Amino acid sequence: MPMKFRISSEYGVLEEIRGGREHHGVDLAMPRGTELHSIMSGTVERVVDHGADNIGRGVILRTDTGDLHVYGHMDSVAVHAGQRVDPGDLLGISGNTGHSSGPHLHFGLIQDGSFADPTALVPDLQRYSGDIAGPSILGIKGPAGWVADKVVDHAAEHVVHGAREHIVHWLVEAGAVLVDLSYGIGLLSCTVLIILGALGMRDAYRWSGLVFGIYSLIRLLGVGFGR
Ligand SMILES: [Zn+2]
């Protein structure tokens, strides 16, 4: 199964968009408006707003184990400094604020004053976050709304920046969405055909083999989009 939120940029990679500096966290591609929940109990250390720079609007949480969790590029923040939070408590809504080329969550981990690799916490982030707050930009629900939001978001960015990297980024995002959708459709068709086969429809097994073959091929090609 594809992951709920694709890691769009891993920890430690050197990227042009950051002026060749190391990436101090992981980026999870997610539609704007996704609810972000704390994955541990702790106290809100700071709420930041860097405007169009850095992580934009963000929350820095001191966990009860003494680490810092950094959430960046948020549209809105639902907590204030000094507030106690438990696992699952709402911290805010994801967005595309700060220095960002598309809607995503930047998540950072600071241990003993230095950045550490937060990749091991990604499954917790996927588990606790993910409810989409409110209707999508165009009021369309479900995957179609997600695709529509991406088109609107990225079209708006092209007008502002007109940069080639955004168009490439959009194509990669759109490809990833199509691949994700095809996974679901492929698996569903296979299941239906296998059930039909079990019910006695003689050709169903053969068709399910064909569909599974196509599905596997798309999946294999889709690894390129998954990065
Ligand atoms: Zn990041």
From TrEMBL:
The chain crosses the membrane at residues 181-201, 207-226. InterPro entries: Cell_wall_metabolism_enzyme, Dup_hybrid_motif, M23ase_b-sheet_dom. Keywords: Membrane, Transmembrane, Transmembrane helix. Residues 22-118 form the M23ase beta-sheet core domain. Gene3D superfamilies: Glucose Permease (Domain IIA). CDD domains: M23_peptidase (cd12797). One of its GO terms (molecular function) is metalloendopeptidase activity. PANTHER family: MUREIN HYDROLASE ACTIVATOR ENVC, PEPTIDASE-RELATED. This is M23 family metallopeptidase. It comes from Paenibacillus albicereus. The lineage of its organism: Bacteria, Bacillati, Bacillota, Bacilli, Bacillales.
